[in-house]
Amino acid sequence: MVRSLHWLATSAGLALLPFSQAIPAQVQGSSTCRYLPGDSEWPSAADWHQLNTTVGGRLSATVPLGAPCHEPHYDAAQCAYLAAEWIYPELHANSSSSFSNPYFQNQSCDPFTSKTSPCLLGNYPDYTIDVRGAADAAAGVTFAREHNIRLVIKNTGHDLLGRSSGKGSLGLWTHHMKNISILDYHHPRYTGKAMKMGAGVQGFDAYAAAHKAGLRVVGGTCSTVGLAGGYTQGGGHSMLSTLYGLSADQVLEWEVVLADGRHVVATPTDYPDLYWALSGGGGGTYAVVLSMTVKAHADGIVTGASVTVTQTNSSDAFWEAVTAFHTAMPAWIAKGAATAYVIMDGSLYLMPATFPGYNASEVNGFMQPFVAQLQRLAVNYTISVNSFDNYYTFFDTFFGPLPDGSYTNAQVQGGRLIPREVLMSADSNRALTAALREISSNRAFRIIGVGTDVSRGGDVPNAVFPGWRKAITWIELTADWDFTQSYATNVANETLITNHYDPLLTQVTGLANSSGAYLNEGDFQQKDFQTQFFGGNYASLKQVKRRYDPEGVFYGTALVGSDDWEVASDGRLCRSSENN
């Protein structure tokens, strides 16, 4: 099903102000802040028209996706459609300006407020360039820099920390850069099959192209996520990560436009510092990515083991089963497996444990010690083990149906990387179970786990958070955004993660500064994000940031260099008072 509104594909004419923007009386802006509409320094209509000419007519003034739900554009049928589809990421991916995170949407124009409430731009960009190549990206970067306005980069808008949003911004939309090439790659550091993909390529695009060539590539379990954007630039875990590493470990080349408009290719030997930073140091921070080239691996058999454990009369037995699961998991991972699992509503869902290169008989043997523990505990369980000839069919079965899959993307979230030694110690494993049990007692939350071992890393050092190299699982805490409840009620769940649940997990790890969190799926309010998301890499990453983006053209929540800025009460981005 195509979840999009075709009438919104073409935005308002450039002769108009951006849609329903609340424009204050003209004021004198400050050079320490990015300018907003209403500031005397904001680009004129003639400036925008010139930019539109420069990019071949692909600049559009934003019409918020939720406009049909508000007067004077109210359309009951269109609004009902939007309300039903709002939680799905593909709806926002096909919009030049929309993004998925409800916190940053800020109820400015969505299907869940009164039709009489105004539809405002809020954190949506005022204008967006539909980027089709280096010249478009360079024009946008140069315009934003010279006019001192905020710049945001978006492919799908899937970013969970709102990094595709920004009030008073110019957006660069890379979604239509869908080119894919299968290469025979030759370099002193790697010779073999590779895939070059444009910045708009999503997981399902890459998986299909790889499958057609008898290959597989590392990508996320949510098939609508763009691969070359924040996913890979922030690390990128996968069901193939134990075997091959994180997505950032696969990168051979980055094709980018820099903050000064230059078009360059970064590799381990050309612009090696930039290559290092882009490969795990956070998306939208150092350059506009146009394409990336990654390793492609020979396809083959993949077996998935699905297990469901449900609570019986004894909740203690169920939580002992959770401990048994975490005890068993390192042995599976040692064989190259990765796990995706969920704990919610008194059930544990392993969905699945992924074993590349093994058949069903072998995997049944690997699972037997865990099954024996479930039988000993007398909990209700089911197990199903199935083999597939290739990764694409496996993925379609467990994470499909492709292309879009079934993931929703309207939530609050945070979490913590759990070091291997936590699961290898009986005492600390039980302490982890106790923490998860406390969190799970709040039925608004579900616990999502991704078990993998990426300690080997790639052939070339990169900026992946060092905590990943010590981790055995990423524990993510999520609660669905309930649009029937108040904005404040939903924000309270995020604050609960920040102030209670994350510290609870941190106590379990006993390694507050080295376990850390995953910057793509963490808490946007993460305290000490510099240490928790980047660790010992932060100082070096900031040096790279200053070298390639000295004016801070690129900004994103809790990314490198964001501590040089703060969001003012009117939403404008300003230099931090500590840096003025």
From TrEMBL:
Cofactor: FAD
GO function term, MF aspect, one: oxidoreductase activity
Residues spanning the signal sequence: 1-22
Keywords assigned: FAD, Flavoprotein, Oxidoreductase, Signal
Keyword RNA-binding: no
Pfam families with a match to the protein in the record: BBE (PF08031), FAD_binding_4 (PF01565)
Residue span, FAD-binding PCMH-type domain: 121-299
Family per record: Belongs to the oxygen-dependent FAD-linked oxidoreductase family.
Name recorded for this polypeptide: FAD-binding PCMH-type domain-containing protein
Organism: Aspergillus niger
